[in-house]
Amino acid sequence: MTGVEILCGLTVLLLLFYYYMVRPYEVWKKIGLPGPTPSLIFGNFYPVLIGKTSIGDQMTKFYKQFKHLPIFGLYIRGHHVLAVNDPNVIKTVLIKDFSKFADRGIALNEVAEPLSQHLFALEPKRWRPLRTRLTPLFTSGKIKDMLALILESSKTLEKYLETLVEKETSVEVREIAAKFTTDVIGSCAFGIDMNAISNEQCQFREIGREFFGPGWKQGLRLRMREAFPRLYTLLGYLLPEDQMTTFFTKVVMDMIEYRKENNVVRPDFINTLMDIQAHPEKINIDGHFHSELESLSELTKHLLVAQAFVFFVAGFETSASTISNALYELAQNQDTQDKLRNEIREHYKRNEGEWKYENIKDMPCLDAVFKETLRKYPPVTVIMRKNSEPYTFEDVNITIPKNTRIFIPVYGIHRDPEIYPNPDVFDIDRFKEDAVATRHPMHYLPFGDGPRNCIGARFAIFQTKIGLIKILRNYKLDVCEQTQIPFINEPRTFTLAPKHGLILKITKTGS
């Protein structure tokens, strides 16, 4: 090999190194947008990608560093990310110019993870018609209809609490809440009794633990999908379908077949999926069927099952987290706990033990506890979007290229002392009407905002509130030796979760 050949080879290697390892990190420099210095391989998210820091904590760190700027630039591996701090720019992304930012920018891998093609992650082409068809399930009227089913599940919760109190031991309140919400979802969405509270080996509860837990399988999948998408797709062809996908697909498809064969009709989630399966031509935008939506009928099986799957996992986890986080805070704030219990008992007495939709809406202390819990502990700590075309933010005079990922640091905003004084203090007075009026609406985003906000927010609100009502009316929560204070975020989960669980003492109170 001659010196010229060696020189040419080195030149090619240097050019490849620049193209793949250096050039991607020059996007924000060319635009003139500030941000923390990235590392060549991992960008600004090395602690997140190795499971050392949660994405919420990492984004909060950057938010504190650059919150004086309306926007700033980040990189996750070689992908550029725009972080948005300014509430008016956030409103532009989520609401004002939503059509340009309708994509969440989440990498879908339908081969390796068939159930990933769900409403939360879908690209706009399939998300929009499905959202339109599923939205009627979550109207106020539908929630009123579901209330009786939620209350029925709560009776099992009350019996379970009795047995726990008799044992006189500390309890993991996250597990109690998750069992309750799993049973509620089973009843309201699928028309089945999941028995999560009464059956320790409930398979649905096992799925929930596996999906949201800090286990190595989920962590590896998440990081492989993000760092090596092509390799991840290849593995999807080579590896057998995972147990979670197999089990949930069989349950949902068997349920659909049973209802068809026996002419069973229930006004629930499964029935809506059956209607979509039978009449894909009804899935339209503005009253017109679009040819690009034919993929919905082509991918009937896994596409439909994925919608049931995400409603199950999101429906139980976010509410269970909020219930347990509220109990954790109330155990440390006994005056607030007593105030809420008094409100619950007052309404119980006034309405002769009957809980109605309107009664629950008219409970200001309960509502404030719910909102303050989500302020301190938003389940989704970072809202993600991606732009479909080059976009100029007029407020800051910056133009970003197409396919820029957008990160909105919800956790950092919710913990900003300039917005919420003493942010680590649990203070329900933050949600008095006059206090709320002083804040920008984009400074409180537990459910997101705009057309792609959480579709099940109404359901989550009432499921959570009923859980708190049933627990707190007759029981008192206290901290114990095993209670971890302060709350430390688990770095290996993609939703906010405590690293060491939430263990509290529960005792019966007088009427």
From TrEMBL:
**Cellular compartments annotated:** Endoplasmic reticulum membrane; Microsome membrane
The main location class comes to endoplasmic reticulum
- Tell me what topology the record assigns in the membrane: Peripheral membrane protein
List the CDD domains: CYP6-like
A family per Pfam: p450
Q: Which cofactor does it need?
A: heme
Keyword terms: Endoplasmic reticulum, Heme, Iron, Membrane, Metal-binding, Microsome, Monooxygenase, Oxidoreductase
Q: Which residues bind heme?
A: 454
Q: Name one GO cellular component term.
A: endoplasmic reticulum membrane
Organism domain of life: Eukaryota
Q: Name one GO molecular function term.
A: monooxygenase activity
**By its UniProt entry, which InterPro entries does this protein fall under?**
Cyt_P450, Cyt_P450_CS, Cyt_P450_E_grp-IV, Cyt_P450_sf, Insect_CytP450_Detox
Q: Tell me the protein family, please.
A: Belongs to the cytochrome P450 family.
- Function noted in UniProt: May be involved in the metabolism of insect hormones and in the breakdown of synthetic insecticides.
Q: What is this protein called?
A: Putative cytochrome P450 6a14
Q: Which organism is it from?
A: Habropoda laboriosa
